[in-house]
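Two records follow; treat each independently.
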Amino acid sequence: MLEVKGLSFGKILKGISFKAEAGQVIGVLGKNGAGKSTLLKCLGGFYSYEGEVKLFGRELSSIPLRERVKLVNYLPQSFNPTFDYKVKEFLYLSTGVEVDDATLSKFGVLKLKERKLSLLSGGERVKVLLSRLELISPSVYLLDEPSAYLDPCVISLLTSYIRELSEKKKIVFIVSHDVDFVFKVSNLFLGIKEGELLFFEKRKGAKEKLEELFECQLENKEVVDEEKTNSFKPNCPNR
């Protein structure tokens, strides 16, 4: 279990509190600048926050970095590597795990393993980072705009993967401006407004507060029904 109490960071986050259980996929929603990505970075231990973040009863900030990255790990919104490694080199050096072809095939990066990171598209980099998370297999996944840059086939793969993580009892946080995508893959929803927690709700309660969250009238209030979330399965070529 991940328990957050009174989490604050500068003037951006103000007293955020909630509990996340194993198997929950939590969509983090809010306007630009609300503090969504900052929340993920606090949960990942990148920022020195005020308040408490406890994972399995242990304060996150007290867990040594080498151990913490195996418990909580992060898929960034953008990725600009310092060194121009080949894909396979990067995955090994950033995880310490031998890179197997099965993992690379799962995310469609097997054919990219000898390519330099600088030569990859934005979508290809996302797939490499998903492969990295799969190799680490943390307890908590922090996904910041994971559907950005991805084509429909890969979004379908990502949706299935998030469901697989939930079945494996992982805790997954997803920040995305694509509200439809968030509602497709999540079973809980956390709304941040001006740095404060507006709601931590299941689907129905979150839907009712979307217009208050975004401070506008939404043209389409009918987000995807939970039972239809896996209906789009494009016929993608083998990767």
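The next record belongs to a different protein.
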Amino acid sequence: MTVDALTDVAGVRVGHATRSGDGWLTGTTVVLAPEGGAVAAVDVRGGGPGTKETDALDPRNVVQRVEAIVLTGGSAYGLDAASGVMAWLEEQGRGVRVGAEPTHVVPVVPAACVFDLGRGGDFRARPDAATGRAAVEAAAISGPGVRVREGCVGAGTGAAVGPMKGGVGTASIVLESGITVAALVVANAAGSVMDPETGVLYGELFQGRVTYPEAHVHEAARRRLAETAAKHTPPPLNTTLAVVATDAELTKAQAQKLAGTAHDGIARAVRPVHLLHDGDTVFALATGARPLDAEQPLALNDILAAGADVVTRAIVRAVRAAESVDGPGGAWPSYEELYGRR
């Protein structure tokens, strides 16, 4: 049975560490690969990314598999969360073997951050190594194939999409071949996720079942958003992050292609994207449990198309799962509060 989440890819686990209150509104999310790691790649399209260890994922470089991916709040400061994940992996003997002893490993932990500094009221309240460790431990103790918490958790705790609240979302699909493709996103976009003329989420236009809000509801929402935006003018330093995973057997080059085409899923759901003040980054993970059909050289196409589709759906779910925030760092109403569940 699937749960429409990243954890539908067998062996992949997700853990969140969330901090809110007393000046905090941030957190970290860890995607933990099956033991032994997964083939990994990345595609960075935003002009202002905050990342760690992404060079290791270049297909021309030596590292083939990674044990975990870190998505975190705290802007560049929050990348310290990856250190806590590294320490935990080292204790488990998981990483690139560099010596004769089983303990002689160097975990390669790619990471990317979103900007949420000060959104809880305290600019210095940001994830650190302890936050990263808490998130990877939460992933490790979770059961296989469990549901993933969405909304204002982990790296999505302080996320915002324009003047609305953002968060974490996830989605999956099983192809006719039996291959699973899934995504987890942190929606924290400077661009809008909503058509300003109708109030419909852009991402839902691609799902074929659109219910338009009533005119008076939309007008009330527009007034509320304008009032909210006028109260605070945070710097437009936002980012959408995603991890796309599959149980297909991919090379690093194929995984990089998957990460690249998955950006199309962001472009369907967020407008504009990939600007100079965005840090839009997509990671791809392939566990290799299901080989591609060697007789079909274009078999990868179905996976590429599905990767974009699940990213779009995950962004919609992130926005719909988010809850309103009104605190010392600012106010961000949720889409559900503005428009209700339709």
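Discussion point: The chain is about 25% helix and 25% strand. How would you locate this feature using only the token line?
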